[in-house]
Amino acid sequence: MVSLTRRLGALVVLAVVLVALPALAETPAKVVATIASPAGTLALRVELDGEGRPAYAVTRRGAEVIAPSRLGFLFTDAPKMERGFTLAGQSSRTVDETWEQPWGEWRTIANHFNELRVRLKEKAGAARELDVVFRVYDDGVGFRYEFPDQPQLKTARIADELTEFAVAGPGAASAEAWWIPGGEWNRYEYLYQHTRLDAVAQAHTPLTIRLADGTHIALHEAALVDYSSMWLRRVEGTRLKAVLSPGAQGPKVVRAAPFTTPWRTLIFADSAGGLYQSHLELNLNEPNKLGDVSWFTPQKFVGVWWEMHLDHSTWSTGRKHGATTANVRRYVDFAAANGIPGVLVEGWNVGWDGQWFGNGNDFDFKRPTPDLDLPGVAAYAKARGVGIIGHHETGGGVSHYESQLGAALDYAQGLGIGVIKTGYVADAGQVERVDPDGTTLREWHDGQWMARHHLLVVTEAAKRHIAIDSHEPIKDTGLRRTYPNWVAREGARGMEYNAWGEPKNPPNHEATLAFTRMLSGPMDFTPGVVSLRGKGDTPIASTLAKQLALYVVLYSPVQMLADLPENYAKYPDALAFIKAVPVDWSDTRVPNGEVGQYATFARKDRRGDDWYVGSVGDDQPRTLTVTLDFLDAGRDYTAHIYRDGPNADWHTDGHPMIVETRTVHQGDTLTLPLARGGGAAVQLVAGKGR
Amino acid sequence: MVSLTRRLGALVVLAVVLVALPALAETPAKVVATIASPAGTLALRVELDGEGRPAYAVTRRGAEVIAPSRLGFLFTDAPKMERGFTLAGQSSRTVDETWEQPWGEWRTIANHFNELRVRLKEKAGAARELDVVFRVYDDGVGFRYEFPDQPQLKTARIADELTEFAVAGPGAASAEAWWIPGGEWNRYEYLYQHTRLDAVAQAHTPLTIRLADGTHIALHEAALVDYSSMWLRRVEGTRLKAVLSPGAQGPKVVRAAPFTTPWRTLIFADSAGGLYQSHLELNLNEPNKLGDVSWFTPQKFVGVWWEMHLDHSTWSTGRKHGATTANVRRYVDFAAANGIPGVLVEGWNVGWDGQWFGNGNDFDFKRPTPDLDLPGVAAYAKARGVGIIGHHETGGGVSHYESQLGAALDYAQGLGIGVIKTGYVADAGQVERVDPDGTTLREWHDGQWMARHHLLVVTEAAKRHIAIDSHEPIKDTGLRRTYPNWVAREGARGMEYNAWGEPKNPPNHEATLAFTRMLSGPMDFTPGVVSLRGKGDTPIASTLAKQLALYVVLYSPVQMLADLPENYAKYPDALAFIKAVPVDWSDTRVPNGEVGQYATFARKDRRGDDWYVGSVGDDQPRTLTVTLDFLDAGRDYTAHIYRDGPNADWHTDGHPMIVETRTVHQGDTLTLPLARGGGAAVQLVAGKGR
């Protein structure tokens, strides 16, 4: 090999200006730009080393949390952009604003950051330019690359992104991480691993990290538009590096300049709950592009779904077909009787009777099965104040789905369908793409081509006032701000793994999700299996009270009552809470939480002054205390407390539940005893006093 | 998502035969084929799980060392091959043979294995077939995929290989690993990391592993021909997975069927030395395709090289140009005076005066610089029994080099050049490929395109009786067996890092290389810096005795005397050993060694009965004992022992060296005291008695 010295030996003759450059690692990097957050909590600096390699670093309250971390790109058809840069310019600005979510966890969102823009320019060769824009909040940093329009780089064919995240500080060497493997066949549906940060292999984001001093860090991205998802591969120690999801044609991303990448985001907090409270991801997305979206109403739904997972019925037609006229009517009746606005119908259409998994080319998104009078059922439902939730399972046959997309959405709209659950059941890397010339390619669920596909579906659906709930999705990066009809996703192990998973979700799964997957946005987890039983009458790792808590802990504007109607009839107390709990909120707090151990969320009903509290735990009995400091001063609240009974234990019987009602006030402390696999749910009804 | 249950719900109607399949992870895998090694030390089984996913597993002396590990492929244009397989057939055979290396560490190589061939066939869809061939030795396993000729798969466009290596056994959870990061910019030139196996991120091979019970494992590949190099990415725990080096056009590998992949190799041993003693890699390569290669003679060489790394001279022309007629003659004189057959001349040709790093398109491989009379110097050398070692630095401009390749080799042949050192100094992922249609692409040093390039160079060179010593190479996979003129490579941090590395090579670097990089084949490390000084008179982490030991420890059939002629004049004792030590051996033993701590190698001169012993250590003083059980019984040997003096210590002064001569016999024990950064070298001259 060769050192810079050797290169310099060659360069010295013609490029006298470079003579002063010593060898690579000997060069102290030079700070070329700095920016601090509004309150000064975070500070970011941009450096250039002696070879002109740019890096950024972050301090929090004066201590380094991100050591100098490289920036740059590899291309398939051009030299990389990674070194040889000078600073061609910089500028900064401040934004301090608030905006309102049409639906969500918080009504108003504050957006207050200081922005630094640096323009990097190559000193030699093609002299290409690259902007990096940093937005520094008190609770985190977002940065993105902006490729200017330039004759030397009309089209960027990105082989990979070289962005690094070098976690630093005294606690880094023994930091913990919670992660799922990125780039594996089962997409995002893995049990979370809890390891040392320096034992992470290749992870999806959000990646949640806890330093030894209690600092929590979440690494993720925002506004993933027309680009490939970022995985994080550990290079060595606690240094992570972006790896873009593959593209079948060579480049992982192809874009014409000018364009911007998604934001790379780093949230810093003193607690797990602090990570959740950050609005960084939403703030880094573009404002609502759809205008008035009042046509979507957050809602609960039931569905012809859990019975298939229990193997009581099938998606396919035949004797056990679930989506028959009679059976769907049964769910409609249950929904109408309980004020549930939606009924999901899976297996309603033609295409389920062959090898659809990873194929999907037999699906017809406009043709119900012969045993289902869908228009009739939809009318039947509508007359009872209930709407059908549509279902578009593609089996990964995405081009096939796109060929029917407009007609399929028209058809759904004609039936009064307001929400469609989409599905992409195929192994990772197996999405079928058929180009106009007939070429068939295999893409990844989270590559650029699918990022484009999902937005196509969402925008086409928006034209028809339909909301989208994507399963086997691309991960959430806050695009619900820009496209508020993209209401929820799967993208993790949901309730279905409690039907047949081997293993099922462990007792601490939801307390892990709360501070990992849920940092990215709403999840259609499908809670509320009050039977606490999966396929073959096998137990699930939950008490009854915990099932109620999930409606508060795991936010989604569409929340399923996943269980069978007949099971809800057996647990009227539980059903009462589930019927009452809202799906739209004006405020959210996280009174306590430790990743993978326990989590308490308090949320305020957007349509009133009531609060709801949900706590979930792990396999340990524990007692959580919640100080009700979020209630209005001087006001009475009637607390309906749904908590684990003294003998509740998911290993034996999770059903014992005590429902207790008492009056509480601001500043009171709720004491919530959690059983093994337990939880607690509290309804705080605002009364007199204001 | 969806479970197999859900899929089965769909399949049950049309595919009754599949009804019995339970859900994925519930299914106990079924063993469909087994094979044991000749002495029964290792046993391998092939399984198919309930979804038809093939896996292999390995036991050693009855205990599992590799847990069931998946097999398969992703394609960019077709569904993956990974599940849905049945066993369509199997066969086995035994081979027990020996063959001879034309040069090497051992004259004869025993090749004794049991082979199992399984044919897998997809049950549905395209019903593609795939063979997996396992060769099970007592010290390891090699397996490869064979794609049969079949109408459903004429061309394989491989997106990635899904081969896994799940290290198992009681010691796996706390196993250690020595590794360098795969897929990073500096190719293979990284300090070895010593971590727990479950903290490996993405590694190059050979990857060396030590289980808690002392079992050593090396994972690597053999016969990397027309395919992309394999990196190993840890998925979770101690489960590793193949990642192929990228290809700029989408697929990482494009091959027309029928074809075979490289062998994936697993060596198992009770000691680090046991790994080195395995001949698995050579055995899994095809026999010599070049016929008589006696035109290549293993040799030592000096060169116009270290002086550039010290910044005394430059590759580029001008006042400091190293490769001038006068300076090259100086090296020729030194070589002639000391019986050294070769003189390397770097910076001899036109092209070094611009930005050649990562570019290389200005290089002219037929035109010496104006200040060098290369034909005259070559004639001068020849008259003195010395040959010129050629140098083809490409700067990563590989298509440019190929455009001159034939003429360049003809030119070298005309000058009597018998060995050419090639160079590919460009960052990883930056090799420039210009296709015939003018398309420019950026490839990886270890991708399929470069695997092809290197063999093009080697075979073109062979036609002209020229040997190749590749720097910034693709890794070694034993192809010297098939192409014995591919004599050595770099592919790790060599001596040059002791000139200018930041940091330099640590004292235990060579004791790490011995059981990591060196498992793959000869390395042109360029030992013998007897000054023990790098650029700016900085110390290197070595004693003088260790520099001598390197000639025995780090095998190469071309070994440099890297230092300046004037420095050798100062250390005549050291020079005496270096002049004497052979570069071709008939036998090799590893009397002791622990990865990264110390290593002792004993090798027998191929041209006689003398033995040579070399030991290297780390930053601890230590005493090694070597039992001379490899000597002939009843014979006198005169031992010339070059060992660290009592005050030797690389931190202060590494030069004190004691040269001791005594008579020894078979079974005697040599006691070798090693200083900090120390080593020992022993010449055992066979005398009377036989």
Automatic annotation (TrEMBL), chains A, B:
Signal sequence residues: 1-25
User: Which UniProt key words apply to this protein?
Assistant: Signal
Domain Glycosyl-hydrolase 97 catalytic residues, every copy? 305-492
Every copy of the Glycosyl-hydrolase 97 N-terminal domain together lies at: 35-287
- Segments forming domain Glycosyl-hydrolase 97 C-terminal oligomerisation: 584-684
Q: Offer an example of a GO molecular function term for this protein.
A: carbohydrate binding
Matching Pfam families:
GH97_C, GH97_N, Glyco_hydro_97
Q: Hydrolase as a keyword?
A: no
Q: What superkingdom heads the lineage?
A: Bacteria
The answer to keyword Signal applying to this record is: yes
**Name this protein carries in UniProt:** Alpha-glucosidase
Name its species.
Answer: Nitrospirillum viridazoti CBAmc
